[in-house]
Amino acid sequence: MAEGKKLVIVESPTKMRSIQGYLGDGYQVLSSVGHIRDLADKKDIPADDKKAYGKYSIDVENDFDPYYVVSDRKTKTVAELRRALKSADEVLLATDEDREGEAIAWHLLETLKPKVPVKRMVFHEITKDAIQAAVGNTRELDLALVDAQETRRILDRLYGWDVSPVLWYKVKSGLSAGRVQSAATRMVVERERERMAFVSAEYWDVESQASSAGAAFGVRLVRVDGGQLARGTDFDDEGKLKKAVVVLSEADAEASPPRSTRQAPPRSPRSRRSREPAAPTPRSPPPPCSRRPDASSR
After folding, report:
1. Whole-angstrom Cα distance, residue 132 to residue 121?
2. Is 108 helix (H, G, I), strand (E, B) or coil?
3. What is the distance between the alpha carbons of residues 159 and 179, in angstroms, rounded to a whole number?
4. Per the confidence metrics, is the pTM higher than 0.90?
5. pLDDT tens-digit map of 50-59
6. Distance set, CA 3 to CA 26, 88, 109, 169 (Å)
7. d(CA 84, CA 103)
């Protein structure tokens, strides 16, 4: 690369040729091909650091400090970028303007350690006007976005590292779990444990049909000898009563039809009730389109 050119590093190799054409000979455009660094595998951690970083490549006792290494498949890419950097007088980090793109730019900065000025270049379309405008309106690296991506990656490793093998065994080999799947799995497990520990309780209702002035309506027995009849909410998860109520057995229900002062009711249906575990608390409502039968999963 000729002396004095500006090195522009984009995220995708498919963008390189178009952007190069828009910027001209004063620039060289190269691609990082996505992330160049990631959390190390356990085998890649030096012996002196294994105790601190353990199997997760994260020092959980020291502010969750991550241990990054350049990916094996990106060593050639990093070498190419370093060669280009030697003759550059400025570096423009032009990765995507999102959390991942900002993190890629930060990893490039941490790995290449350029001694020339570094600017963050962002654009939202690949047109000549947009690219030239982006060169003239650079900014600093947004470390808040970098921290957000790093937190996401660390949580993925801390949770998914242990949950993924469970998916391989229970669902399908090769599946990967992370922070969201792990939290969802925990909710399912906790709910299943509640179901397994649940103790059912039996109680009986007495209902009937009555009429007044020619209008029919249903009636239900709610008290016996002044005492309130038990409902499902009167029992705890161990099947024990939470307050003093009347619990009817089947024999009690058969012997306790409701009475009407106006008209003798027909034979009353007795219904056996069995408490079921309460429905799980909804965390967030589904989007309206999820209730449409013609809605696509995408």
Report:
1. 10
2. helix
3. 6
4. no
5. 899 988 999 9
6. 10, 7, 21, 57
7. 21
